[in-house]
Amino acid sequence: MATFRSARDDEDEVLGRGHQLGAERFRTVTRNTGDTIYIRVSVTRICDTYVRFDRALFPLIRKIGGKTEVALAPGTDTPVAVCCFLPPKLRPGAYFLFMSGWLSVLLAQSVTTTYRFQRGYLKGEKMWQRLGEPVDDGTYVLILGTDPRHAGHGYAGKLLQHVLEQHEKAHPGVPVYLETATDHAQRVYERLGFQEMWREQEKQQKMDQSPLNKLPAELRNRIYELVLPRPGPCQIRKTIYRKSIYGEQEAEQPAMTRTCRQIRHESLTMFYASRDFCVNIIEPQDSTCYYTNLVERDFQQKISIFKTWLECTRTHHSAIQLLSLRIEMNERAFRQVQKGYRSATNELGHLLLQYGFQHPRLRITIITDAEDSSPQERRAHRQELLQHDYKSLLEVHEKAVIFVSRGYHQ
């Protein structure tokens, strides 16, 4: 069962980074304790800039006497949901905006961002004047959000219920106002006693109104083929993935797949299905390195990069037609890291099986570079690899493995 407490001063960065893209603060709602309950709803564009605003908002709320409550997952002390609100008659002035750093964040943005923010603020003020509702007389919820990694467990709803109960005890009969941007969130609020007071639709073009969506699926696929990178091998390397704003890893993908949900769904599968993905576990230049610690470190790093990529792309593995692995190591360097190498290759074999990569969608090329060795020595070395070092890998992926031995002594 979730527990609740007030946010600590040292948690501003954690709350700002982990929760605010999922925060609800773009449609205004009011909740009265009497029989009459209203909600005002307006839709505004969500922008990454708001994340920086929210990081400065927590100190501002604290300086003027507002409150920030958090929900904790069972058995932990890590916040998974946050609710920031201002009690009645308590609103920030210019002095507090400056001292908290919030005003500095706003002024550091572009002219367009500042204009949009001010425009949204003025629209809200004008709407309250039309309704004749004295918003300052009620408690105003500025932020209600859940860490996306813990979404779907109802933490935000339970936290809001907790805040409302505390509000009823401290300010009986005083309304509570908040904002939301989704119909799902509105239904949740209505179950807690909220009702719609005002709705305003932002003028923005949706995908169902786009001329692209009116084209047949075949023509849209042809457009995707022209815009996406040309089909061909795609090297899996350290820059193939990046950290998201939540601190998690995500695979690097074409820009077009990030325009909207429908285009992403239609084009991303085509992207993964139209190219072969290649990874060099041991690259040729590593063959000249005979320092044990450097070889081991480089080998483990490449394994880690590949594992991260597999995790990032797990939902698209079924679309990938061919995954090609090239494992190459100089014989002398191999003997230095043989124990760790053997363990890593065994783990690699089971990892590929776990993610559903088998022959014929998987090709593993193992290259041994035996300098100044005779054919008999190379055959003995290969037999050792088959019996010990690649035994587990061959048991799982025998049909996918190709051995290549290179030597300079004839």
Automatic annotation (TrEMBL):
Provenance organism: Passalora fulva (Tomato leaf mold)
Domain N-acetyltransferase: 70-218
Annotated signal sequence range: none
Alphabetical list of InterPro entries matching this protein: 2EXR (IPR045518), Acyl_CoA_acyltransferase (IPR016181), AN11006-like (IPR038883), GNAT_dom (IPR000182)
Gene Ontology terms for molecular function: acyltransferase activity, transferring groups other than amino-acyl groups
Protein name, as recorded: N-acetyltransferase domain-containing protein
Top-level taxonomy: Eukaryota, Fungi, Dikarya, Ascomycota, Pezizomycotina
Domain of life, per lineage: Eukaryota
